[in-house]
Design brief:
The chain has 96 residues and is mainly alpha-helical. The protein has three helices and no strands.
């Protein structure tokens, strides 16, 4: 029972302190939040277009890097295949 009275007293003190120390009324706070929401919406109005442009640029860059890596891989494969074929031929003929 003491716990409940303590909980109730703490709740009442918290509410009273919040009302006394509140910087502005709830109505003023809602109006301020509404204005800030409008400002944020206006500032981010072109955000989807900007993100789409940046994403397409990154996609092109990634595609280019992937193609370069594939070309390098094919070149290494070709050189390795030729080298191994030459070694195999020499080993088969006994000229190692």
């Amino acid at each position: 029972m003491k716990f409940m009275w303590g909980l109730l007293a703490g709740f009442a003190l918290g509410v009273a302190t919040g009302l006394v120390l509140a910087p502005q009324s709830g109505e003023a706070t809602r109006a301020q939040l509404g204005e800030q929401g409008i400002m944020l919406r206006d500032r981010s109005g072109n955000l989807p277009g900007d993100l789409r442009t940046r994403a397409s640029g990154l996609t092109g860059e990634l595609r280019s890097r992937a193609n370069d890596a594939m070309d390098q891989g094919r070149e290494i494969y070709s050189r390795t295949k030729e080298d191994l074929s030459d070694r195999y031929t020499k080993a088969k003929s006994g000229n190692l």
